[in-house]
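Changelog note: in this version the structure field was regenerated for every chain. One regenerated record is shown below for reference.
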Amino acid sequence: MNSLAQLGRGAEHCSKADWTTLLALELDDRMAAVAGMRDPLAGLKFPSVEPICVFGYTKRLDEWALVYFWAQDMESLSYSTLQQKGSIIDAIRLGAAMCSVCDRQLGLKEIAQKFADELPNDFFASTMMEDGHLYWFGFEESVFGVLYRTRSDDVKINSESVGSCLVFHYDYFKYRSPVWSSVPISFLNKMCGKDPGALGKVLLEPKCFDPRKDIPAGWFLWPWQRCLVAADNKQADICYQPIDTTSLMFDLRKSTMVLEQLKDQDKGEFSSLIRAVVKTAKDAVFKYGGFFDKETGDGIVAHFCDFQLDNSYSEPASARAFLAAKLILRDVKRHCDQIQPKLKMGVAALGGAIGIHTDQAVWTSDNGLVSALGDSIVMAARLCSEADNFSIFVSNQEFRRLSSLLEPADLESFLQKKFCGKEYNETSQLYGFQWQR
């Protein structure tokens, strides 16, 4: 029986503790465990169905993105073997092409006709496609498709037997993968464009990760993977290594005052306000390539980093964090204005405040949740606590970074602002810079 509870974590989101446990195993067990990290779903069996590859698409910010991919023979992936996996690369190429039509759930023959000019001439005559069938299933805002063969000519395949395969893959994606809730996968899809090579880097290279081995130049890894290294270049232990991180802290000011001022029959509107504000903030972070860390009740914590994708450009992390912050304040103001007419007394101080700072931080992924700990988030939180309503407060260092990245109109909106902090007194006269909406 297939069970999510029996599956281990994939290499793309294993924790330091997972790798430390692996290193303590005997050689044969260690090799088996590494193969399991490459593809935790390798041993699954579905009645009468042999899945060849599975594609998962999610609609974020009104665009469909390929966010999940699985294929046969992924347990043998490694830094050295990935380029030899021609069938897997071909499957990524197919998945990238279908991104534009996944919501139409076309059959394999229709797909072959539509993309005949975009894929290699012999693609649909390949071994991978031989006797293949394509089946789709919708899950809320996601669509999953499976390319499969039947295991026996004597068994009639029905939608339930194929659907059970897709349901399991969707559940694995939603409940075991940080891509579902934390990763800006739509932003990365847009960076990759229609280049299956770039998209393959995002979807496949993190699965090859091994902190005991040297990472090939230009390899794409998630930020929490980049923070795991072999201690002192030895393979006996794994330790953390911080990386440059731009942290963003957003807080909705005077939200509890709104609850007090709502009429009894409108108290339920408070929950709707908080949900809308948090969703707005998360959407803005994802739009500009940020990673969602956590909700803070009426705010969020998010982090940005520079991406390692050949031939794909994105603005530096500091610039993207600032642009996300501007979008958050603009859209949060709309939510705040909409609830004011329902208050007994208006709350003029209701609004968002944001702090941004770049420094070193250690990223972690545990149980599908992404976090970053270090000086970047500590300072971002302090800046946020001192920011004025509908403003973005950045450190002096952050402002110097932004000075070469932003448009003149945005730079002119920054003013020097005193920073108090917790450990400093008035004689220090510390300051940062604040952008006011």
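Spot check on this record: The mean pLDDT is 88. The two ends are 56 Å apart (CA to CA).
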